[in-house]
């Protein structure tokens, strides 16, 4: 499957566009996937016919996060490319001026969880799980994902998810306010389209301005850090512990 097919754009009625993650089996992220996400977001932002965007998946998993099998072979440039991809793509999603609705029927783990945290409205299936496994993979948080997590998670949820590295289920995520609704698996997309159409009816300029008021300071902090070298850590992203931790995670 070519990189271009890892994301599928589907234009629905009412100004709603669905962007479907399509890298089986678990939509694992690498720098090419993240760059592709960023490019799609740029095109959707420029397209005046698009009023709201749904993020969804063609598999049972929204995204399991970084492609650990691929990451075991990363050199310094690969690590820097991954950090840049995480910073740039998720900051674009966090600041995207149009409404974003995520349909998470299944797990959203580590980098995949930021597809949820950076979106404006979050719908989960009953079997969905959410977590930040970075500490167990042996990597820290690049500046973009870290700032987004701090801005969107309550302090105790941040503590448990980031330091423990264990996922939580849909009901716990709903109780914490991490997701907005839980729907039966076969109803997640129906509800996502309904919510997207509702958000699409909001005056677009006003929505973009209010979102900028909410998230602008966080985005400015991330952008300043990226401009000062946060995308290219000179020693790379991995430590002496990372590849062994990844191997243990892979079993």
Polypeptide structure, described:
With 251 residues, the protein is an alpha/beta fold. It has a single domain (3-200), classed as 2-enoyl-CoA Hydratase, Chain A, domain 1, CATH 3.90.226.10. The chain is built from eleven helices and nine strands. Helix 1 (31-46) links the parallel strand 2 (16-21) and strand 3. The longest helix is centred in the C-terminal third of the chain and has 27 residues, at 204-230. The radius of gyration is 17 Å and the shape is globular. The relative contact order is 0.16. The mean pLDDT is 97.
What is the CATH superfamily? 2-enoyl-CoA Hydratase, Chain A, domain 1
The neighbouring-strand order within the major sheet is 1-2-3-4-6-9
Computed CA radius of gyration, to the nearest angstrom = 17 Å
Helices and strands, in order, run as: EEHEHHEEHEEHHHEHEHHH
CATH class: Alpha Beta
Short description:
With 251 residues, the chain is of the alpha/beta class. The chain contains eleven helices and nine strands.
Give the SSE layout.
Elements: E1 7-11, E2 16-21, H1 31-46, E3 52-57, H2 68-71, H3 76-95, E4 100-104, E5 108-109, H4 114-117, E6 121-124, E7 129-131, H5 134-137, H6 143-152, H7 155-164, E8 168-169, H8 170-175, E9 181-182, H9 188-200, H10 204-230, H11 242-250
